[in-house]
Structures are given as C-alpha cells and as structure tokens.
C-alpha cells in the first residue's frame, strides 16, 4: 500500500508542478508588463504635471500683469521716454569730412 500511495502522490504532484511552472512564467511576464506600463504611466503623469505647472505659472503671471497693468504701463512709458531723451542728447559733429557722434553732458 505504501508503494501505491507514493505513486498516487507522485501523479498528483505532477499537475501541481506544471501549474507552478505556468504561474512562474505568468508572474515573470506580468512583472515585466507591469514594469513597462508603470514607466509609461509615470512618464504621462510627469508630462501632465509639468504642463499643469506651466499653465499655472502662466496664469499667475497673467493675473499679476492684469492686476498691475497701470504700474507696468507707467514703468514702460517712463523707460521709453528715458531712452528717447538719451537718443536726442546725442549730436553729430562733422569735421574734415568725417562724422563722429559725441555724447554731451
């Protein structure tokens, strides 16, 4: 009887061994697929978060400019008129056929 029990246990263990082998192969390929899918999901999340951050920053700058439009316009106009004044203060002197730009103080 011990011999028949050993044979029956052996015959029952063969399908379990084959099932374990299939589980091993499935787990290996599932792990690789999960790894690759995780990389793509992380890359998509990274790009999505980056775009969201850029849009958020642009919105913040837009709100700042809209809220301080008059101050920014006054500074821009002041800078423009300052540059115009600096350019008007330059005079061209012609001496001996050559012209030189001299900055007057």
Q: What is the structural class?
A: mainly alpha
| Helix count from the secondary structure assignment | 2
Kindly report how far apart the N and C termini lie: 121 Å
Number of strands: 2
Alpha carbon gyration radius: 40 Å
> Can you tell me the residue ranges where pLDDT is under 50 for at least 5 consecutive residues?
none
Overall spatial form: rod-shaped
Main β-sheet, spatial strand arrangement: 1-2
Transmembrane segments: 21-44, 64-83
Keywords: Membrane, Transmembrane, Transmembrane helix
Report on the structure:
- 82% of the residues lie in helices and 11% in strands.
- It is mainly alpha-helical.
- The protein has a domain at 2-68.
- Strands 1-2 form a two-stranded antiparallel sheet.
- The longest helix is centred in the first third of the chain and has 66 residues, at 2-67.
- The radius of gyration is 40 Å and the shape is rod-shaped.
- The mean pLDDT is 86.
- The chain crosses the membrane at residues 21-44, 64-83.
- Keywords: Membrane, Transmembrane, Transmembrane helix.
A few lines on this structure:
The protein has 105 residues and is mainly α. The protein has helices at residues 2-67, 69-88, and strands at residues 90-95, 98-103. The chain has a domain at 2-68.
How are the SSEs placed, and which strands pair?
Elements (H helix, E strand, L loop, with lengths): L1 H66 L1 H20 L1 E6 L2 E6 L2
Antiparallel strand pairs: 1-2
